[in-house]
């Protein structure tokens, strides 16, 4: 990453340096916040993966037990009760409601199962024989559906969380590897440009001072030469001149240079 | 005396049925079945007994396909026997089918009540309970029409008449309708074997009474146990008890008043068999009777013991000669065999080998 090319198109002025510095600070704060969010989400994600694993295993076991209890029903009743059960059911006994859970700013839907009370539509199925097995089978299947709902809730959250973690990580990486270096580069560039300007300015001043000095020296030398020439031509005049000379008429006074 | 002329009309049928009985699976055969690793193995093991019927099954068939194929064998054998039966034996065999017919009609009533296309239901009906005019019932679009067609078209009319009106079909739970019909059926069957001139006083009456009484008691006990915790009132429950059997009348009266399992246990205390069942159950499983196994492999439930008892009674029926009861017993034994095969197949298919021994084998 050669810094020279990757910088923002700004004029290297002190004002934009200030803006850039503020921007860098903002980016660093945002980066640390996002990093923390991503870590929190990842932690949650790991935990969820573990729970999904557990739930899947549990579901396998529960479904096996449930399927077996249906076999028991078939054995005890000696026939198919499916149709009768389907037809005698009027309203759902097992229901779910959805809730939202907030995990570091991410809304995850969770499903919660509950049984409606007093809703036993096929309580009399298998009255003559096998009724107990039918009820037991229903209970095992209720448990099976419960674990299915749990798994569904976890899976949904898993997918959403996965998406969110990807987005957050992308942002973290973008800030870390693009925005911050670029801002830093810009600052560096502005600084170097400003330094360059400073140096130029200094050099220029030095040049001006040098020239002035030279000019002064030349003027001094000329003055001196003139005076000497004057003295040679009229030595008294100079003395006369110099003694009671009119102070106000002193036109050849040197400039006072500090 | 009854043996003198029995074989004139019924000797062939009796011989056939005894032959069928000998082809039932025996305990060694069952133990072979339980050793199977896959359904295909099971199919192979069933080959000698069910050969042709299982041949059309695809490899690794589902347990329900297996069950329906094994049932097909029972049906075809039953139809053969029925075709060869004459006179009172034919009537007797019709009576055997009425029980299945009740289930079928109950199914159709359920379908009509919920305004389904009942023609689709015909496939689900038990083939033994099939009667020629059954498709006619599907024409009915509402319960009243259905009620009238049932009265006209089916042999079940007497069971409806007097105890159920068409409003009842609408209002009552289908299970109550079914059990009312079954109660009437059992009473009628019991009456039939004890009063028909060909059967009264013969071993048929004796054995069949025994079987039917057991069936009646079993239903009474089951209904009581299964009605706990449902909206079935005691008065309604009382109407579902058959009015004969070893428990009748004192036991059934006490059953009708029972509030819990303990009450049922007290009610059946007078009959030795049932008393021992309840004792075994209360010793074996703490979760109460009826819970099949309750998770433990060896604990037998009340239901299991009733089946066991039924099988023993059915097996004993074959010790008598010159009786129609062997047909009933054979059907029941074969049904149990189908259930056993299905159970073993389920256990193999679902890899639950620890419960595989939970079937009932009597031979």
TrEMBL record, chain A:
Keywords attached to this Swiss-Prot or TrEMBL record, sorted alphabetically, are: Hydrogen ion transport, Ion transport, Membrane, Transport, Vacuole
* Gene Ontology cellular-component annotations: fungal-type vacuole membrane; membrane raft; vacuolar proton-transporting V-type ATPase, V1 domain
Q: Which domain of life is it from?
A: Eukaryota
Q: Where in the cell?
A: Vacuole membrane
Q: Where is this region: Disordered?
A: 211-258
| Acidic residues bias (residue ranges) | 249-258
Classify the protein's membrane topology as the record does.
Peripheral membrane protein
Under Gene Ontology molecular function, one entry of this record is: proton-transporting ATPase activity, rotational mechanism
Q: Name one Pfam family in it.
A: ATP-synt_D
- Biased composition (Basic and acidic residues) is annotated at 212-234
* Chief location: membrane
Q: One biological process GO term for this chain?
A: vacuolar acidification
User: What is this protein's function per UniProt?
Assistant: Subunit of the V1 complex of vacuolar(H+)-ATPase (V-ATPase), a multisubunit enzyme composed of a peripheral complex (V1) that hydrolyzes ATP and a membrane integral complex (V0) that translocates protons. V-ATPase is responsible for acidifying and maintaining the pH of intracellular compartments.
Instruction: Please name the NCBIfam families in this protein's record.
Output: V_ATPase_subD
Q: Please report which protein family the annotation says this sequence is part of.
A: Belongs to the V-ATPase D subunit family.
Q: Which PANTHER family match?
A: V-TYPE ATP SYNTHASE SUBUNIT D
Q: What is this protein called?
A: V-type proton ATPase subunit D
* Organism from which the protein derives: Hypocrea virens (strain Gv29-8 / FGSC 10586) (Gliocladium virens)
Origin organism lineage: Eukaryota, Fungi, Dikarya, Ascomycota, Pezizomycotina
UniProtKB/TrEMBL annotation, chain B:
Q: Does the keyword Ion transport apply?
A: yes
Instruction: Note the InterPro entries from the entry.
Output: ATPase_csu/dsu_sf, ATPase_V0-cplx_csu/dsu, ATPase_V0-cplx_dsu, V-type_ATPase_csu/dsu, V-type_ATPase_csu/dsu_dom_3
One molecular function GO term is:
proton-transporting ATPase activity, rotational mechanism
Biological process (GO) annotations? vacuolar transport
**Which Pfam families does the record match to this protein?**
vATP-synt_AC39
Keywords attached to this entry: Hydrogen ion transport, Ion transport, Transport
Annotated GO CC locations? fungal-type vacuole membrane; vacuolar proton-transporting V-type ATPase, V0 domain
Signal peptide range: none
The answer to keyword Ion transport applying to this record is: yes
Q: What does this protein do?
A: Subunit of the V0 complex of vacuolar(H+)-ATPase (V-ATPase), a multisubunit enzyme composed of a peripheral complex (V1) that hydrolyzes ATP and a membrane integral complex (V0) that translocates protons. V-ATPase is responsible for acidifying and maintaining the pH of intracellular compartments. This subunit is a non-integral membrane component of the membrane pore domain and is required for proper assembly of the V0 sector. Might be involved in the regulated assembly of V1 subunits onto the membrane sector or alternatively may prevent the passage of protons through V0 pores.
Q: How does it assemble?
A: V-ATPase is a heteromultimeric enzyme composed of a peripheral catalytic V1 complex (components A to H) attached to an integral membrane V0 proton pore complex (components: a, c, c', c'', d, e, f and VOA1). V-ATPase is a heteromultimeric enzyme made up of two complexes: the ATP-hydrolytic V1 complex and the proton translocation V0 complex.
* Similarity comment: family membership: Belongs to the V-ATPase V0D/AC39 subunit family.
Q: What is this protein called?
A: V-type proton ATPase subunit
């Amino acid at each position: 990453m050669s810094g020279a090319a990757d910088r923002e198109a700004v004029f290297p002025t002190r004002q934009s340096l200030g803006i850039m510095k503020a921007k860098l600070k903002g980016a660093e704060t945002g980066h640390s916040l996002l990093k923390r969010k991503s870590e929190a989400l990842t932690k949650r994600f790991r935990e969820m993966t573990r729970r999904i694993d557990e739930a899947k295993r549990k579901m396998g076991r529960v479904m096996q037990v449930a399927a077996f209890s249906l076999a028991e029903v078939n054995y005890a009743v000696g026939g198919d009760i499916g149709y009768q059960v389907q037809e005698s059911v009027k309203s759902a006994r097992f229901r779910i409601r959805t809730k939202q859970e907030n995990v570091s700013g991410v809304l995850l839907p969770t499903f919660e199962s509950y049984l409606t009370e007093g809703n036993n539509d096929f309580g009399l199925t298998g009255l003559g024989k096998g009724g107990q097995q039918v009820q037991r089978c229903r209970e095992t299947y209720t448990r099976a559906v419960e674990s299915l709902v749990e798994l569904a809730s976890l899976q949904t959250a898993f997918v959403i969380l996965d998406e969110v973690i990807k987005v957050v990580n992308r942002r973290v990486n973008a800030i870390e590897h693009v925005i911050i270096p670029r801002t830093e580069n810009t600052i560096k560039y502005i600084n170097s440009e400003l330094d360059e300007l400073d140096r130029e300015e200094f050099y220029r001043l030095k040049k001006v001072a040098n020239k002035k000095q030279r000019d002064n020296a030349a003027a001094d030398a000329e003055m001196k030469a003139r005076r000497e020439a004057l003295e040679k031509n009229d030595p008294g005049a100079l003395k006369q001149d110099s003694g009671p000379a009119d102070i106000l008429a002193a036109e050849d006074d040197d400039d006072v240079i500090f | 005396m009854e043996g003198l002329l029995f074989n004139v009309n019924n000797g062939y049928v009796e011989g056939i049925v005894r032959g069928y009985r000998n082809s039932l699976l025996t305990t060694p055969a069952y133990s072979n079945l339980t050793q199977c690793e896959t359904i295909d193995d099971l199919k192979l093991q069933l080959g000698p007994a069910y050969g042709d019927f299982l041949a059309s099954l695809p490899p690794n068939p589902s347990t329900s396909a297996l069950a329906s194929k094994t049932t097909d064998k029972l049906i075809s054998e039953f139809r053969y026997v029925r075709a060869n039966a004459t006179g009172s034996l034919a009537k007797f065999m019709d009576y055997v089918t009425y029980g299945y017919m009740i289930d079928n009609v109950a199914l159709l009533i359920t379908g009509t009540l919920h305004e389904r296309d009942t023609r689709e239901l015909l496939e689900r009906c038990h083939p033994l309970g099939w009667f020629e005019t059954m498709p006619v019932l599907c024409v009915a679009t509402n319960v009243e029409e259905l009620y009238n067609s049932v009265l006209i078209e089916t042999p079940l009319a007497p069971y409806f008449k007097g105890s159920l009106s068409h409003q009842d079909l609408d209002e009552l739970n289908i299970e109550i309708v079914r059990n009312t019909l079954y109660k009437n059926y059992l009473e009628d069957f019991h009456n039939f074997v004890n009063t028909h001139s060909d059967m009264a006083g013969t071993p048929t009456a004796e054995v069949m009474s025994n079987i039917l009484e057991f069936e009646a008691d079993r239903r009474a006990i089951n209904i009581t146990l299964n009605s706990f915790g449902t909206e079935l009132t005691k008065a309604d429950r009382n109407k579902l008890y058959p009015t004969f059997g070893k428990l009748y009348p004192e036991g059934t009266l006490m059953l009708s008043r029972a509030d819990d399992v303990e009450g049922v246990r007290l009610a059946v205390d007078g009959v030795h068999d049932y008393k021992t069942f309840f004792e075994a159950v209360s010793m074996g499983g703490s979760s109460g009777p009826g819970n099949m196994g309750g998770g433990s492999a060896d604990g037998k439930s009340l239901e299991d013991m009733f089946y066991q008892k039924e099988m023993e009674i059915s097996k004993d029926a074959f010790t008598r000669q010159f009786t129609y009861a062997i047909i009933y017993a054979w059907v029941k034994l074969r049904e149990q065999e189908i259930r056993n095969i299905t159970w073993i197949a389920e256990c193999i298919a679902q890899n639950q080998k620890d419960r595989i021994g939970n079937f009932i084998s009597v031979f």
